[in-house]
Design a protein that fits this description.
The protein has 413 residues and is an alpha/beta fold. Helices cover 43% and strands 17% of the residues. The chain is globular.
Length: 413
């Protein structure tokens, strides 16, 4: 008998309940990631799931198991977007009233999609944690059933159906890489693939990936219990969770082999990598596993599947991430170059850049920068480059010519 609240049998029951609502998403070979890791890599494309994320699975199974009385009282949830859409869509399919609390500043596409699925949406809390508190208050006041985004056995079992599909579609898989927030997704997948592998007398590694600014699992695993961490700002809003769940934590502790963390630049670079190499749109949280592979954090043990968990991204955020990804990958560089205010200086800089093959994208030439003397100007110039080595060559050529370029970092500072 399993010591955990979720078993493979629960996951298999969830798969039957999801038939006709959740899609079986495809698995695709990732040539570049295979070259980087040195073993065959496939991508599980859950960004192509209905509502654009895996969250539909857990929400649907949770709602499908409600009693007639519970259904009549409606459901309530709190989410930055993907869980909100999953609950709203599942509720629409099952004819259940849904109320969703979303934080102020939630991505507009996720907000509009949630409303489009028929849910009543409130944007009152500043954070997901505040929205969860509001959702619990609503449940206590109205009798609505609270649908937690990750910390419930039915939700975990629903997410675990992804593990069943990976096992069936990649039968020789040896490592599965999964984005981690509260832990419902990776817990469900780990339950499925670990027990299936054990039946065949072999092992499968499950590796979780968290955003470094919201990495609650490394701290919690070190403490041996769910621990709240201070959550910083992250472009990966879908996995920015300050505390693991009480149900998910023991599953992750016992079944997940490793949890690694990735920085914001890594996430942006991964989104850009997926967009360019595979022509797929993936949100930063959904690209966390790709970021870990690109960052050399995943040990190559054999055929590896990385989960792209969601593709819901605000176009304005996508624009910023592409710019950040280009900087992080060494393909875009902005420099601030002090110059003496005399004719020909801009031409000299342009000639040097042309000689090393740097393409000028944008130029700002000003006499009004703080700290300038009367005889000085500042040239702020952005150039397209071919990587970190090429950037170093550009800077070196300018310095050899007597200039003092100051390179802006990935945040433009």
């Amino acid at each position: 008998m399993s010591p955990h609240e979720v078993t493979l049998a629960h996951v298999e029951q969830a798969a039957a309940a999801l038939a006709g609502i959740a899609q079986r998403t495809p698995v695709d070979h990732a040539t570049h990631l295979s070259d980087v890791l040195g073993v065959p890599v496939t991508m599980k494309l859950e960004n192509l799931q209905r509502t654009g994320s895996f969250k539909l699975r857990g929400a649907t199974y949770r709602l499908s198991r409600l009693s007639p009385d519970e259904r009549s009282r409606g459901v309530v949830a709190a989410s930055a977007g993907n869980h909100a859409q999953g609950v709203a869509f599942a509720a629409q399919q099952l004819a259940i009233d849904a109320t969703i609390f979303m934080p102020l500043g939630a991505p507009v596409p996720k907000l509009l999609a949630t409303k489009g699925y028929g849910a009543t949406v409130f944007t009152d809390g500043a954070t997901v944690e505040e929205c969860l508190a509001l959702a619990h208050e609503h449940a206590a006041r109205t009798g609505a059933v609270m649908v937690h985004p990750f910390d419930h056995p039915d939700v975990i079992a629903g997410q675990g159906t992804i593990g069943l599909e990976i096992w069936q579609d990649v039968p020789d898989v040896e490592t599965v890489v999964v984005p981690v927030g509260g832990g419902g997704l990776i817990a469900g997948i780990a339950v499925a693939v670990k027990e299936l592998a054990a039946r065949e007398g072999r092992a499968v590694r499950v590796v979780g990936v968290q955003a470094a600014t919201a990495a609650s699992y490394p701290a919690s695993l070190a403490e041996g219990e769910p621990t709240t961490v201070e959550r910083g700002t992250s472009i990966a809003d879908g996995i920015a969770v300050a505390r693991p769940g009480d149900v998910t934590f023991p599953l992750v502790r016992d079944l997940v082999d490793q949890v690694v963390t990735v920085e914001e630049d890594d996430l942006a670079r991964a989104v850009l990598e997926v967009l360019e190499r595979t022509k797929l749109v993936v949100e930063p949280a959904g690209a966390a596993g790709v970021a870990a592979i690109l960052g050399g954090l995943i040990e190559p043990t054999g055929p590896t599947t990385v989960l792209l968990s969601g593709g819901n991204i605000d176009p304005l955020l996508m624009q910023r991430i592409i710019a950040l990804g280009l900087v992080a990958s060494g393909r875009y560089m902005t420099m601030r170059i002090p110059l003496p205010d005399r004719p020909g200086q801009l031409a000299r800089v342009s000639e040097i850049l042309a000689s090393v093959g740097a393409n000028v994208i944008e130029v700002l030439h000003t006499r009004h920068d703080l700290g300038l003397t009367v005889g000085d100007v500042v040239l702020q110039i952005s150039v397209e480059t071919r990587g970190q080595n090429h950037q170093a060559e550009v800077v070196s050529a300018l310095r050899d010519a007597g200039f003092e370029p100051q390179v802006a970092d990935a945040q433009g500072d």
